[in-house]
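Please produce the structure of this protein holding KG4.
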Amino acid sequence: MDKPVVILGIETSCDETSAAVMRDGRLLSNVVSSQFVHEQYGGVVPELASRAHQKLMIPIVEEALAKANVSQKDLSAVAGVIGPGLMGSLLVGLNFGKSYAYGLGIPFIGVNHMEAHIYSNFIEEPWPSFPFVCLTVSGGHTQLVVMREDFQYETIGQTRDDAAGEAFDKVAKMLDLGYPGGPKVDALAKEGNAEAVSFPRSFLDDDPFGFSFSGIKTSVLYYLRDNHRAGISKAELADICASFQASVVDVLVIKTIAAAEEYGVKDIAMAGGVSANSGLRRAMSAAASHAHLTLFVPKLEYCTDNAAMISAVGYRKYLRKSFSPISESAVAGLELGAQFTN
Ligand code: KG4
Ligand code: ZN
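Below is the modeled complex.
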């Protein structure tokens, strides 16, 4: 019997330190440590993030190996995120991953964080069939990507200003809900009326698959300024969250379905932190079945940053012997598909 392929995945692009172990494509462990140090600052402080990664890296890797009941000598390769992300955070994970692999005499596989989000749909079956369209919505990105085969990314649209998650976080900040705001807006929206306030939907007629969320965000700011100078009740807060969320979700859903129709695919997928949003999951699922499309959405724990998705890419690249040179470096603004795909 062939030796099993055991991949250690490492994710440190932003404020989650995570390690995962995958054997022959099956996830054995996925340990994620979110850094709460940033909460008091209302956003991620890059310097603090790198320091926290530095402290957490080895314990998290050891925990992931122990949970998977795998020892260092069982590992076939280390897969680690190389970008996009915060430079200091990326450097901690990448340099740890390369050194660890080098010390064990096994390959290092560099992974693009955004491709890993797409591949979070391949952590557990069933998974989408090629070709499919993926909507990736995170704190830093909003992208529509057509995938015709493994590692072939055609980005057909992206945001020209704020990412969807960034809009959620900024609106949450205006409403004093704390950081990260997405899950908080989501929770409050469940209690509110989505038709209470009519926030704009930006469809960009000249860019059918592009996005813009800064207008919606500014409208929330003006709405608060004009209507709530004297404070805001819990019920009004819930209505604002529900109305804001509905306007973001409407645009995401309509454009994703239109992209599927334009590119003639039968499967669509979602990925990234905002794909954890309950309103988006519900609306996309309804729109997909109405359009006779099959929707794939990762489990909640695989939507936000995690190393399971890194190991899913690592496993597939290992089978193709797509290894990184020892000189592999971190790239803060790494584009999807900019890397080697041999
Ligand atoms: O993918 P992710 O963990 O990190 C990046 O790659 O950016 O995404 C984080 C983003 C944050 O903006 C967070 O507020 C948002 O995802 N998010 C949500 C929800 N859960 C996380 N946004 C809306 N609803 C949620 N339930
Ligand atoms: Zn992410």
